[in-house]
Structures are given as C-alpha cells and as structure tokens.
Amino acid sequence: MTRTILITGATGTLGRELVRRLGCAASGPRVILLARGAASADVVDATDPLLDEWSGSAGRARLAAVRGDLLAGTGFGLAPAVRGALAHEVTDILHCAAATTFTLPLAEARAINVGGTEAVLRFAGECHALRQVACFSTVYVAGRRTGRVAEDELGEVHAGFVNSYEQSKHEMEQLVRATMASLPIAVYRLSTIIGDSRTGVVRGFNALHYAIRLLYQGLAPMVPGQGGHPVDLVPVDYVAAAAAWLFEHRFEAGRTYQLCTGGDRSPALAALVDATVDAFYRFRPAWRKRSIEKPAIVDLRTYELFVRSVEETGNDVLRQATRAIQAFAYQLAYPKVFDTAATAAALAGSGLTPPAVLDYYPNVIRHCIETNWGAAAA
C-alpha cells in the first residue's frame, strides 16, 4: 500500500519545513495537508493554491490539500466522503497544529491543543492502515519545576505553569499517553524555535522575538533568572530534519523525544543577553547612540516588584511592554536542563546534531532588525 502522510499545521513554522523534507523529495510518500487555508473541504485537491509554495519541488505532484478544522471534531469539518476516503488512505499522521500564543485564555489554548489533538487521535483510530502517529509538544510541559527534565518524564502539575500554553500542552500529553496503549504514537517535544541556523531567517515570530524587540526599544530594563543558567533555544532546520529522520527511520511507538539543544550547547542567560546587545551594536550601530542600558538579570522577587511598580505607575507604554514580555520572561525564572540522551542515540547515523546557539543567534537578530520583526515583509 502506498504511504500517505496527513500533516496538520503544515503552514506553520515547523510544518512548512516538514513538508519540504517529507513531501518534496524526488521519491517518497504522498502528503496531504489538512489546513484551514485550503480551498475546499469537499475534495482532496492536488492543485490547491495553498501548495504553490512548494511548486518548484521534485515531489510536488505527491502533495495535496484539503480544508479542515480541528475544532470541528473528529470529522474536521470534511465532507463525509472525503473523511471516509482519508480514513482508508492515510497511513501516517504528523500532528503539528497548535495554539502557541502564550497569552491565550486557558480555555482557548485547551480547545486547540487538547481538543484538537483529541480529534486527531480519534481520526487516527478510524484509519484502516495506520502505521504511526507523531504528536508535537514542548519541553515546557515541565512548567515551573526546575532542574533536569528527562525525556520520558511528564511530571505532576503541583509546581504549576508559567502560561496557558505550557498547561494546555501538559494536558495534551496526558491525553496522548493515555492513548498510547491503543495507537502507535510518539511524542516530539520542542524547545523555543528561533529561526534558521543557516540563514537567520525567522518565518514565525514568537514571544522570544518580541522580547528581543522590547529590549531593542529600551522597554525591558530587567529580566528574571540567574545569569549562569542555560536558556534552551533551537533552530527550525535542525528540529525539522531531526523530526523527519526519527519519523522515517527510527519511529518507536510510546517514546518521547526532546528536540532541543541541551545544556552543553545552550548559552547561559547572561551570555545570551550579552550576545543580543552585541548584535544590536553590530547590525544597527546607531543603536549605541541611544544609550540604552543592558537589562539587568534579577531574581524573581525583584522582577515581580518591578512588574507591580509598573502597573502602579500608570505608564501605558511600559505597562503594555511589561505585560507583553511576562509570559516568556517568567520561563527564564525557572531554569531547566533538558535531557537529550535518547534523542541523540536515536539520531545516530543521521549526522544531525543541534548547532551551538551563539554560532547562529546573531544572524537571527540581524533578520529581526532588518525586517523590523516581520513588518517589512508584511
């Protein structure tokens, strides 16, 4: 039987790269994109304009798209005949779709991250020739706990969470683990994706990039954390290549892999702040003339006092800036090191290792500045 991979979230930062690797090679499986931006829910369409991005690829003829909505339940809002045909054809599922905004109300984050995943897993249970399912998660399911986080560990919730994204993903993993007994599922956890290590290009700006922008604007005078503790960041090209390799060559149901940089190649918070400021000087020399102080690294209590004082001053600009950075900044206050031993072992023979962050991070900063954090490309 011909392999057919269904990919959710294929138009996102990671999904795009996975399509390039799995669906655009000279030979490989058929790939169907389930996307809200597709033209039709009534037909699986190989000519959908959504696929134009990959029109020059060798495997373009094996790509197709269908409009579906994970919030519509198991049937994704598809016509019954289309849903039935997919259930007969799909052999593999890559579930990348997620709500990644840190500031969403918990109910909204749950709707897509938990409810959407439940819909995908129920559909997977209907697939007649299902081989494997990969669900993408985050290392930050660890929430507010600190220290080393093992790959197969999903801790209790007593430590709490920094934001709704972390909590909803933790609940998603609980659902996935409960379903592993009946479906062939693996979990791929990501840390914070910051751009492409080869070019510095950012295709999906997230909370970290906006925190960098506030620093650039002089609106982030301090960050919580400890200067010597590592901050795990990861490039999209490594994550996509590693996930594709594991999915194609080392799939093992019931396993959880942490696709992150790990402690050895992750910069300490103080070094990351220094590298950020140095990149401002390097790629925008006029920034030096603004005499913006490098943000201080402070303990959580001091940072919370600062946040409270900002709220009380009534300065709307600083208040909005502080609120915007809080959801990410608090992650820095609960330092962790993510174990990657099983992932490294599974990737043996692939030639894939995460690059050292500070080797490519300046180019990410340059891209942010030159595009005005994506505004120039809009």
Q: Percentage of helical residues?
A: 25-40%
Estimated structural class: alpha/beta
**Globular, elongated, flat, extended or rod-shaped: what is the shape?**
globular
What are the secondary-structure elements, in order, as H or E? Answer: EHEEHEHEEHEEHEEHEHEHHEHH
Please identify the top-level CATH class of the domain at 4-191 and 234-264 and 336-355.
Answer: Alpha Beta
Tell me about the biggest sheet? Answer: 7 strands, parallel
What is the strand tally?
Answer: 13
User: Segments where pLDDT lies below 50 for 5+ residues?
Assistant: none
Percentage of residues in DSSP E strands: 5-15%
Strand order of the largest sheet: 3-2-1-4-5-7-11
**How many helices?**
11
CATH topology of the domain at 4-191 and 234-264 and 336-355: Rossmann fold
**Reported CATH architecture of the domain at 4-191 and 234-264 and 336-355:** 3-Layer(aba) Sandwich
- Rg result: 21 Å
Structure explained in plain terms:
A seven-stranded parallel sheet has the order 3-2-1-4-5-7-11, sandwiched between helices. Strands 6-13 form a two-stranded parallel sheet. The mean pLDDT is 93. The chain has 378 residues and is an alpha/beta fold. The chain has helices spanning 13-23, 80-89, 106-126, 164-179, 207-216, 236-249, 269-283, 300-313, 316-332, 341-346, 357-370, and strands at 4-8, 30-35, 63-67, 92-95, 132-138, 147-149, 185-190, 192-193, 222-224, 233-234, 256-259, 296-298, 336-338. The chain has eleven helices and 13 strands. It has a domain at 4-191 and 234-264 and 336-355: 3-Layer(aba) Sandwich (Rossmann fold). The chain starts with a strand and ends in an 8-residue tail after the last helix.
